[in-house]
Structure formats: C-alpha cells, structure tokens
Amino acid sequence: MDYIKLDYSLKTAEERAAFASHLPIEQQKKEYVADYIIMAMTPEEKKKKEILTSNRLVTINKRETSYQGLVSKFENGEDGLFNLIIEDKNVLLTHKDKITQKDIAEIPALAALEDGISRVEKMIETAAGKRKYQLKKQLIEMRQEQYIIKNNYKQGTQPPAANSGNTGKNPLKGFSKIDLTEHIYIDDQYEPVSDGLITFFNPNHVSALLCNYSELKQDCDGKFTSDAYYMMMDFDNLIDAAMAPYPLYLDLLIYKIDGKSNAEIQQLLDKKFGVFHTVEYLSCLWRKKIPKIISEKAKEQYLMWYFTYVEKGKWKRCSRCGDIKLACGRFFSKNNTAKDGWYSMCKDCRNKKGGNANG
C-alpha cells in the first residue's frame, strides 16, 4: 500500500500528528505524511521543530545547511561562507567530497581529529540533557573542521603558479631543490607583479607556505645554497612585519603552525585576549585574511624598496601620522583639487575613525 487518504479536516499539527501515529509504520515514514503535518504547523512551531518525523528531519537538516541557513551561522556573514566553502548561492551544501580513509592516513591533522570525533561519539551515547546537546554541537563543529583541514591540505600542497592558473606542478615537493627565480615589474597601477613559481604577492601562495611551514623549514634547513632557504628567511621577516599590528592574528598563526585545532585556539585566544571567535571565523582568518595581510605587506615593502633604490619615486608626507610614503594609489587617495593630485592624509589615517573629516 503506497498511499493512504489523509484527513485534511484536521487543522492543527498536533491533531494531524495524532492521526498519523495510527497509520502503519511504513506509511508514517512517507515524506507526504511529514508534509501533511508540517503544513499545519504555525511559524513558531516550525522554528521550534517540535513535530518532525525522522524522514522529514533529514530534509530539514539539509535545508538548514543551504546557503541562507549557513550564512546566519557565520560571525562575518556571507564573507565567512564564501571564504570557507563556495561562491555558488544555489548549491545545497551537502559535501560530495567525502573524508576517506586515505585522507586520514595522508593528513596527520585529520587522523587526530578523527580520534577526537570517535571519543565524542562515545560520550554522546551516555550523556543526557544539556551535556548531550553541547557534545552534539561540538561533534558538528568537528565534522565541519574535517573538510576545512582537507581543503587547506589540498590548497597548500598545490598552489597555482602566479598569474597563470594551475600548472599541474607541485612546487612544495622537493622544495629546497626548486629554482625560485622570479622577475618582477611594476604595472600602471603601481602594483608589483611577479612571474615566479611561488611569490609572496599571491595570497594563495602565502596560504600554501603557511599551511606547510614546518615541513618547508625542515626541508631547506641548513641548505645555504638553496633558493628556498633564503625565501623562508624572507618569509619569516615578512610575517613579523605584517603581523606586528595584529598580535591576535600572530598568535593564531603560530598556534596553527604548531598543529593546534581550531577548538584549542579558540580557548587560548579567549583566555589571552578576552575575544571569543567561532571556529569558522578562525578558519577564515587563517585561510584568507592573514595571507592577504602578509601579501599586501610584501607588495608594500617591494614598492618602498624599488622606488628608493631602483627608480626615483615621488614621495609625500602624511599630514596626520607624519610618515613619508610613496605618492601612489596604494598609500594615498586621489584628490583632483589638490596641487599634487593626492589627499594630504594617507589612506591608513583616512580609514581610521574621524579620518575622513579632514583631507
């Protein structure tokens, strides 16, 4: 029997649920029976999800991991979702790329997380009440982090060549033996552009270097004739300069390199800085924002060097902070009414609170 007549004269969800409870078990599992109950629920009842069949719950959970559902879960809204997973708003976020035993064997962080997941699953079996709810929430976050770790690993081991898309090469394999020669030019927007296989100007490359930092440092340690040795030395200095204004970001970076999980880092940062970020937001910082800050600092440093030692540049002192900076769009905003074509205050000062009040 595939279909049974339902009583639509019943108006409330409770009445319909009671009616459905007398149906044969195989009928209770049908999707249309769940719809029959859900259609009578008030908006408040739907939010509380007080009446849900096990079959309907699968559908509801999938809808809650849709684009709109996940956006509401992120501390930085859409940006967090875009940075974490995808940019296609029509995709239902049910992972197609599963975590396999091969992944766990190849990625140490995944293996450690898998052990943690097993322990939490066992704890849920005997837990009750609020404790059980907290453990389930923790389990969901841990499973989400599995895909973040796998994605970081995939991005980190195969960064694309600068400005050319993916070449199919793996520049991190045999890192110390790679020719890292690069040629840099300044484009008409005063942006440095590199043709190197790996360049600090590309945030994706910076992210790859960070994700594989320990292995790369070990690979080129003591190899003083290797390009990689000096690249990693420059990278250390760049990180120090870029992260100087962001002590929390620097600690996050160090914790990630040390192999700590997002959950551990969450607690450490909260204890030290009194700031509590979600694990999703920490992943966003690690994978997107921190690499971008480092990349922008690399561009800034190169421009300052180039127009000091290679080509005579036009310089300008900021009327607010007093720093002398290159007179270009990276440091100053255009002002057609000014004699030199630029605002007297640098972009950094103008972006600070009250900075736009004076030009």
Q: N- to C-terminal separation? A: 78 Å
Q: Could you list the spans in which at least 5 consecutive residues all have pLDDT below 50? A: 84-94, 157-171, 355-359
- The best one-word shape is elongated
Strand content: under 5%
Number of helices: 17
Helix content: 55-70%
Radius of gyration: 27 Å
SSE string, helices as H and strands as E: HHHHHHHHHHEEHHHHHHEEH
Number of strands: 4
Which whole number gives the mean pLDDT? 76
Structure description:
By secondary structure, the protein is mainly alpha-helical. The chain has 3 domains: 1-64, no CATH class; 158-310, no CATH class; 314-359, no CATH class. 55% of the residues lie in helices and 3% in strands. The strands form 2 sheets. The protein has a two-stranded antiparallel sheet. A hairpin with a 6-residue loop joins strand 3 and strand 4 (324-326). Helix 10 (129-157) crosses helix 11 (203-211), helix 10 (129-157) runs parallel beside helix 16 (279-310) and helix 14 runs antiparallel to helix 15. The longest helix has 32 residues, at 279-310. The relative contact order is 0.07. Residues 84-94, 157-171 and 355-359 have low confidence and may be disordered.
Q: What can be said about this structure in brief?
A:
The chain has 359 residues and is mainly α. The protein has 17 helices and four strands.
Describe the secondary-structure layout.
Blueprint: H1 13-20, H2 25-28, H3 31-38, H4 43-48, H5 54-64, H6 67-71, H7 77-84, H8 101-106, H9 108-126, H10 129-157, E1 184-186, E2 192-194, H11 203-211, H12 213-220, H13 227-243, H14 247-257, H15 262-273, H16 279-310, E3 315-317, E4 324-326, H17 347-351
Antiparallel strand pairs: 1-2, 3-4
Helix pairs in contact: 1-3, 9-10, 10-11, 10-16, 11-16, 13-16, 14-15, 14-16, 15-16
